[in-house]
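Researcher: Please predict.
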Amino acid sequence: MTVQQLRSIYQVKITLMGARPPIWRRVLVSSAVSLADFHLVVQIAMGWTNSHLHQFIHNREIYGIPDDEFDFGLETKDEYKYKLSQLLKQEKDSMVYEYDFGDGWEHKIVLEKILPYDKNARLPVCVKGKRACPPEDCGGVWGYEELLNAIQDPEHPDHEGMLEWLGGNFDSERLDIKEINDLLVEYCR
């Protein structure tokens, strides 16, 4: 690992795989952030509630919270022992972040840029993104598409039921970067 990697700012793009139109966030983080802390950044930036299991997958290796009871014969490396810069070493390197194994939300994590270290930078920060995060427990990408179809069509047989389940309206285009950054300040600094 180079000195630059230890003392860099990573510009990372997080894209929810399979979502059309795309749902994504661009964040700036310290290159030295642990995978455990980066997990929290992904949760907040995307809009998830941290209610389910997760894992990072990089070069056929799994990183997460080891649990001998649920390892299914696959070794999970402890995410607290690894830094983001140990997996993403150069621009365009990528990995997968999976959240909620039942719904199977997979995110492609791409290191877009390695920026010079700035001791005054307030990290992590979300600098850009598109569209709202899907609601938790809606059945993955396929279930989310069905949910959107139902709530957008008053004639759909599940229209009222889905709106009730959501607790009212849901705006799939809504993204509040200020709210994301307020949460990042509260929970990640």
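Model: The longest strand covers residues 105-116.
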